[in-house]
Design goal:
single chain, about 120 residues, alpha+beta, 2 helices, 7 strands
Amino acid sequence: MSPHGSEVRALAAGCWWDAVRVPFAAGVRALGVLGDETGAVIRDGYGDILYWLVPPGEAADWHLPEVQVLGHGSHVAVPPPRRTKGPGLYWHVPVAYGRECTDPAHLHAALSAALTVRPAL
């Protein structure tokens, strides 16, 4: 990802990273579990979706409700690195050197915990 430019770009998943697509409410709960162990997270402010980046192929066999893994053959809309506020697509957790991808085992555990919690009505 280029550090320059101001436009959202559609980038191919499956080469440098895969993306894990999660509904916002479950994603916020997972962020609470992950804490400082999270990598960069993209937020689609219009669709209330969060996307984590994970190493390619590391989440391909996940079967979690409401979670979609976007790998080889998929494209992901990626905001410019400095866009950290909405509206639209932005970095909910900014990308930083050494903190691009989230450890897949930690993310899977956090999402499993987050998806078992049901919000109070």
